[in-house]
């Protein structure tokens, strides 16, 4: 009886571990940066920093500006 219970417990544990979702890969992650303009020096630096960090982490970054 104890062996059957132990076997059932180990089987349930094995099944529960295989059902866990796999972590997302960096290539699957995307981000968006929306700034007010593309000409304001503050937003230009923000975009440059975000682009550099996204490239370092392997994240696909899309940038948009509300005004050109």
From TrEMBL:
Keywords, alphabetical: Signal
Signal peptide (residue range): 1-26
Highest taxon of the lineage: Bacteria
Entry-linked InterPro entries: Peripla_BP_I
Name listed for the protein in its UniProt record: Sugar ABC transporter
Organism ancestry: Bacteria, Pseudomonadati, Pseudomonadota, Alphaproteobacteria, Rhodospirillales
């Amino acid at each position: 009886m104890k062996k059957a219970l132990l076997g059932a417990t180990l089987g349930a544990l094995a099944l529960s571990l295989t059902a866990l979702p796999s972590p997302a890969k960096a290539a699957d992650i995307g981000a968006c940066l929306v700034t007010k303009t593309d000409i304001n020096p503050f937003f230009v630096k923000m975009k440059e920093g975000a682009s550099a960090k996204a490239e370092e982490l392997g994240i696909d970054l899309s940038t948009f500006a509300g005004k050109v």
